Amino acid sequence: MSLNRTAKGIVLVPSLLLGGAFLSAAVWMDGPAAQNKGLALTLGAVLLGAGILAQWLPMGSPPSPEGKDTDP
Which of 1, 49, 59, 68 is surrounded by the most beta carbons within 10 Å? Predict the structure, then answer.
């Protein structure tokens, strides 16, 4: 169980950090880089959404003990 939780954290942290960085860049853009504001907003939103979605995915059930079958 903790392996799946660790994997979710590995996805969450970089996604949130990169998403926040792209959104911040979109807010503070000026000059020639302002043309890429839509791209930065889109990438930021997608990365934030992916990080949050990864946390909501079900973890699944633990494997049954050996020798015991849970099917009727």
Answer: 49
